[in-house]
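Look over both lines before class:
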Amino acid sequence: MNQTLSSMQDVLNTGGPALWAIAALSVITLALILWKLWRILSAGVWSTGQAEARIAAAEQGGGVVLQTAGRNLHTRFVAGVIRALDLPEEVAQDEVTRLAHRELGRLRTGLRPLELIVTIAPLIGLLGTVLGMIEAFQALETSGGRADPAVLAGGIWEALLTTAAGMAVAIPAAIALSWFESIADRAQAEMEDAATRLFVARKLALGVDHGGAG
């Protein structure tokens, strides 16, 4: 164990400050991904059964639609829309928009740091490579062009290590970011569909009531 830690420290020291910065970013990236997964699971993004049941009851017009908020995102949103339907239509639409923005804001929390890591990790790696190449060629100049090719190749290899490390952090972060964004986009589409169905159900119910009254 100690030998492994020592080897890892040697590699980090070889890459210099840039590699240490990338190593810190890798820890932050892993923590962000795990935290975001926990938030998504806690939000119940894939649990739509209860919300769908409430929408279906409203569409049928004869069922009792509970207005209590549930624990998952969709049930909470649908309950909010149902409460908003008691308001005038224009006010109700504004309230539904506010509810959707609130839920989507919660769902997209933490995506901006991931996006930043995707951008800066390769740049830090490239900076480390450029600095390493500068040092290697400075050593070559100092030796009057008689540097050992093996030493020069070793310096270049050490410099390129930071670029590879930066990409190794950025690629998983980009994949996770794309997946999280797709989940948010899907949730947004489902909320828009739910709100539209509930507004249509309300208009149909009002139309039936008015027809019956006439």
Summary: The CA atoms of residues 26 and 128 lie 16 Å apart. The helical segments are 2-15, 17-43, 49-60, 73-84, 89-107, 111-142, 149-213. The longest helix spans residues 149-213. The mean pLDDT is 80.
